[in-house]
Write a structure and sequence with these properties.
The protein is mostly helical. It is built from 7 helices and no strands. The protein has helices at 20-53, 58-86, 111-137, 141-166, 172-193, 203-206, 213-234. It is elongated, with a radius of gyration of 18 Å.
């Protein structure tokens, strides 16, 4: 059984120690995360279709299909946390608005590969590092459980992008086209992570999986410097 399909552990006494403002802020952030996870589920429907169109390895197609359900489970867990902090049942989340990136100027036959790289290799790798940072600061059992469950799945989701990039089914010509697009894909991914609204300065938020915008920026930069750029270099892609 995947960790994300399990139920939250019981809340500990630290929940009762939170002030009303902190609880409201945490309920809001985790509600937004639930919406984002549902949006990611829709995103992976596009990724799964892209991999079918590319005739990618069956294992990658299977991982992408499973990721649709993974993200729905992530939304369920985030919503439960939001309700826990709110102290009441909140309305069921709706998927955050998401559109397939336009990729203006990219030839149609290249776009499926760019979607897979942008969402899986870049965004999910970044998400894994961000969740690791959240988990490092978290002190409450339900929050640590949810972060661990999300991180375990997102690592698998990131592997889809890395494996596709390494696939012999990606022709040398297609690899050259991908290389030309990587800088703009990286910039777009970084901008997306910088779009989050700033949080109030409160140790209670960091202790419940919600680091500051500055700490988020550090996690994004760390993912790029320590994982994405070295990984791309290993496959012959040099990012200036």
């Amino acid at each position: 059984m995947r960790l994300s399909s399990r139920e939250l552990p019981a809340a500990d006494a630290s929940l009762d120690a939170l002030g009303d403002d902190d609880r409201a802020a945490l309920a809001h952030v985790w509600s937004l995360r639930a919406q984002a996870e549902l949006g990611a589920s829709d995103n992976f429907r596009v990724i799964a279709e892209a991999l079918r169109e590319l005739d990618a390895e069956p294992e990658l197609q299977s991982l992408a299909a499973r990721a649709i359900g993974d993200e729905e489970q992530h939304a369920r867990l985030c919503h439960k946390l939001a309700c826990l902090f709110a102290g009441r049942e909140l309305p069921h989340p709706e998927a955050a608005a998401w559109r397939v990136p336009a990729l203006v100027g990219a030839p149609p036959e290249l776009r499926p590969t760019l979607h897979v790289i942008g969402q899986c290799l870049l965004n999910e790798t970044t998400a894994s590092v961000f969740l690791e940072r959240c988990h490092a600061g978290a002190r409450t059992a339900p929050v640590r459980f949810v972060l661990k469950a999300l991180m375990a799945d997102d690592i698998d989701h990131a592997r889809i992008g890395w494996a596709h990039l390494a696939s012999p089914r990606l022709s040398p010509e297609r690899r050259r086209e991908v290389a030309a697009w990587l800088p703009s894909l990286i910039r777009a991914n970084s901008r997306t992570w910088g779009d989050h609204p700033p949080l109030p300065e409160s140790p209670a938020l960091d202790a419940n999986g919600c680091p500051s915008l500055a700490e988020t920026a550090v996690a994004v930069e760390t993912a790029l410097r320590e994982m994405i750029v070295p990984g791309l270099r290993r496959f012959g892609f040099v990012i200036a």
